[in-house]
Amino acid sequence: MNMAGDSALEADISGSAFGSNQGNLRLGSLINLSSRLSIGCAGAILSELQRRRASECLYRDQDVSAAHAIRTITMFDLANSMFLNDDTLDALQILRSESHPDSQKGGPDKSSSGAKESLSVYGLFQRHARTPQGKAKLKQTFLRPSTDMGLLGERHRIIAILLRPENSETFTMIIKHLRMIKNMKAIMSHIQRGVDKPSSLAPAKRGVWKSLQRFSKFTVELYETVRVLETGGAPLEVVNRMQAQVDPRQIMQVGKVVSDTIDFDATETINDTVILPGVSEDLDQLTRTYNGFPSLLQETARHIVRDVPEWAAAYIEHCIYYHQLGFLTVISANANGEPNYDGPEPGAGDDWERIFVHEGNFYFKNRRMKELDDYFGDIVAQIHGEQPSTSLCCRKSSLGELDSLTALAAVAQQYNLTAPEMTESNVLEIKNGRHLLQELVVSAFVPNDCLLCGGNGSESESAGSSTSELSHSEGEKTPSMLILTGPNHSGKSVYLKQVALIVYLAHVGSFVPAEWARIGTVDRILTRVSTRESAARPESAFAIDMRQAAFSINLATRRSLVLIDEFGKGTSPVDGAALAAALFTQFAEAGENVRPKVLAATHFHEIFEQELLAQSPTVGFAHMEINVDYNTQYLEDQVTFLYTMVPGRSISSFGTNCALLNGIDDKIVARAEALSLLMAHGEDLSAACASLSEEETKQLHKAENIARELHVRAHNFKSIRRVLNVADGPDPRRP
């Protein structure tokens, strides 16, 4: 969070203006409020600024208090990483948790062990990762896509090598070995705590020593398998890192030490760990020496008491040994916090060096302590050196990285993904792109192309991504914004998401679902697609849409990809169309240095019919093609969706046809169709609603005749009553 800038905020962030709901909404358009850790750190900084202002500045002294004022708030990203917020992850269905079907486990909280991955992009890859460290590395990769061209190129090359026909058998063996490697973090945790089994009821074959032995065996086999990969002569960085971190001789030694130490047959028989006799004489000797330190230190303390003056002997507490610090003499402190004795006078040949102070005692290094250091050395480090330690033999990070790469390769093989061409040009060109999730739930998926070019920035970059290189024909300007129209259910939202997912997967280092793709580096994917409402947020659905749009405007750069789907639908049609047109204009008229790549979908046809959006070479139009047959008997059969994107605008959303398909009554749909045509042409709806149809006119005449007849009958009835009243005389009840 950057707290310096030229433009000043109207109100101090730490003031009351941002303590209200309105202030929270404004902050949500500037920063990602879902990053709780970052927000907590920023809160600590704000509190410190408030404290300094209160202690160092005079009350209401604007000149002085400005030194601690916050000028602006901006977001900064990690170096070489693409920015994604929770809205983007949810809209693109990259990560999505759900409750585990096992009722004994927890809910859909991501931190809960009872959560499981739902249908998501990460879920497709996760099940191909075989080790816990591989799953952790894969998730980190998905949460932190990279913009480092070298790293992405290396990942793409490794996937291509793994998928070579000559490496098919080797790839299968790598997967087999990875499947046999357990979670070493848990195993080492058990060893450090002196636990030989996960639980007292667990069988011995699941104990930590058997797992450590199997880890050594399969890691060495995996190492040898990776070495025989056919790489075409060029070395692989992941192999080099694995060779630097994994010493097969040490790992074999670990396995040998375990095998020579544990009697696994006897262990399995009695279901408890059994040690073989005579394991290591050196380790036994070091352990015996270390265990004898208490008596040695007591004897050394007695010698020191004899060497110091008689008055100082009472202040010698004891001698102690600390790992890495060695042997030390402990002296008590006086009431002033100084040592009661700090050694003989200078020049006596025994210099006492103060090492540290702890709990009222001073720890000194003197001549006798140094002699013990020279004789014994750091005996604890020697004991650890004699014991097998996987932290010195193998780094689990290299195995996790290899496992995550094999998962990317396995998904690329299963779903027919291709390697993207990454470029520094600010271009997005896709041929026959597909939606990785949508094609799994339909019988046939129709692929589509995409071509966008963001702002060129500097002149050198502009020359590197010239329009002549990107255009389909000479002189055609490649747009930076593509606005999609078309009927409901025609595939507009799917198209927006599939393009964003292709860009995202390319920056993860994965192959992409397309026949061919040329993708320039994208620093941020910003979305106004899905509305995530919550009772914990004091925001309406429309307010959430506005916040997402403002967030996209404030954070978008020329390297960003912005998705806008049905913006403005949460308010009146007039206001919604005006807001959508203004948002499109904002991105279309941005300068070359800031104009992002934008994909938008809308049903506000009045924006174009009433020319609310000025024509610009940076704006392109397309629609999802349909086949309309007006000769069909039923209205719901008129439209056939082809799911193909073609240039140009659509003149109707065919919402009434979609209403029929979803069970709305025919009469309601017919009336809606008539009103829709009037609204599209800007005609007066009040006049149209005042006119009656032929059927309604007939019904009105019928009702009028009935009313007249009733009126006549009522008049005749009153005449008869009056005649009867005259004949019988006046009614005595009337006054």
From TrEMBL:
<dbReference type="GO" id="GO:0030983">
    <property type="term" value="F:mismatched DNA binding"/>
</dbReference>
<dbReference type="Pfam" id="PF05192">
    <property type="entry name" value="MutS_III"/>
</dbReference>
<feature type="domain" description="DNA mismatch repair proteins mutS family">
    <location>
        <begin position="560"/>
        <end position="576"/>
    </location>
</feature>
<dbReference type="InterPro" id="IPR017261">
    <property type="entry name" value="DNA_mismatch_repair_MutS/MSH"/>
</dbReference>
<dbReference type="InterPro" id="IPR036187">
    <property type="entry name" value="DNA_mismatch_repair_MutS_sf"/>
</dbReference>
<keyword id="KW-0238">DNA-binding</keyword>
<dbReference type="GO" id="GO:0005634">
    <property type="term" value="C:nucleus"/>
</dbReference>
<keyword id="KW-0547">Nucleotide-binding</keyword>
<feature type="region of interest" description="Disordered">
    <location>
        <begin position="457"/>
        <end position="480"/>
    </location>
</feature>
<dbReference type="GO" id="GO:0005524">
    <property type="term" value="F:ATP binding"/>
</dbReference>
<keyword id="KW-0539">Nucleus</keyword>
<comment type="similarity">
    <text>Belongs to the DNA mismatch repair MutS family.</text>
</comment>
<dbReference type="InterPro" id="IPR027417">
    <property type="entry name" value="P-loop_NTPase"/>
</dbReference>
<keyword id="KW-0067">ATP-binding</keyword>
<dbReference type="GO" id="GO:0006298">
    <property type="term" value="P:mismatch repair"/>
</dbReference>
<dbReference type="InterPro" id="IPR000432">
    <property type="entry name" value="DNA_mismatch_repair_MutS_C"/>
</dbReference>
<dbReference type="GO" id="GO:0051026">
    <property type="term" value="P:chiasma assembly"/>
</dbReference>
<dbReference type="Pfam" id="PF00488">
    <property type="entry name" value="MutS_V"/>
</dbReference>
<dbReference type="GO" id="GO:0005694">
    <property type="term" value="C:chromosome"/>
</dbReference>
<protein>
    <recommendedName>
        <fullName>DNA mismatch repair protein MSH5</fullName>
    </recommendedName>
</protein>
<keyword id="KW-0158">Chromosome</keyword>
<feature type="compositionally biased region" description="Low complexity">
    <location>
        <begin position="458"/>
        <end position="470"/>
    </location>
</feature>
<dbReference type="InterPro" id="IPR045076">
    <property type="entry name" value="MutS"/>
</dbReference>
<dbReference type="InterPro" id="IPR007696">
    <property type="entry name" value="DNA_mismatch_repair_MutS_core"/>
</dbReference>
<dbReference type="GO" id="GO:0140664">
    <property type="term" value="F:ATP-dependent DNA damage sensor activity"/>
</dbReference>
<keyword id="KW-0469">Meiosis</keyword>
